[in-house]
Design goal:
- The structure is a single chain.
- By secondary structure, the protein is of the alpha+beta class.
- It contains four helices and nine strands.
- The chain has a five-stranded antiparallel β-sheet with strand order 6-5-4-1-9, covered by helices on one side. A two-stranded antiparallel ribbon has the order 2-3. Strands 7-8 form a two-stranded antiparallel ribbon.
- A hairpin with a 3-residue loop joins strand 4 and strand 5.
- The protein starts with 5 loop residues before the first helix and ends in a 5-residue tail after the last helix.
Length: 247
Amino acid sequence: MVILVSGDFEKGHLIIALGILLIGLEMFGGLRQNVVAAARSRCTLAIRRWKHSANTTMGHVRHRNMIKQFSNKPMVTVFERQGPSSQFKWGPWVAGGQLLLWINFADFYWRYSVEEDKETGQMKLLAKWKRVCLSAVAMVAGLAIGGGILHYISRSVARMQILNGKTVRLDVFRVSGRGTVCKQYPLDSVYSRDTLYTGVGPAGLTKSASSQYSLQAPGNKFAYILSRTGKFQDPKVFDLLFHRAKA
């Protein structure tokens, strides 16, 4: 049995006290770091919200000022696709050719789809339902490709104009590919989630993912398509007028 003398007893208490103090300091340091981190996070969030609010307000102001510049002009052309108005006249012919091609594929699958007979080892026609499925897939493929070509033509914009700072006029290609049809929408109702100006390429409009620019209009499930290779009056002004992160 070991008996601590008074000196050893005091040293033992001192060591225990120092240990408790160190543990307390360590806990306080961790707590302080958490408090500082939380405060820093809240400050950063508040600054981001303030910047977003300021940018949104400035964006609205610049948007209104930009519209005022067009209000005194009866007609301003902001986009024009390069090429004649009949540049898509080949579209219906290509779509029809695709449909005929896939009809031939469907007929081939119906007439000549065969498999080996496990009993006789000879080739025989596939079951009727299998040939029907193969032919149906071919028909759907032909309709999808041909319909996609005609749909692209019908959504392509030949010319875009702003009338009196209030109305957007879109000259859209006909499904036949010959001539255009006019569509008009209120200026504030037309928007795009895409950014036109990228700063890349000769005109600053090049985008690696796509050569098209999409524009939404009310009453249309599908977007209108503007070619980035077309002639834009001022891409930066175009973004100020129509770019929105949300509808």
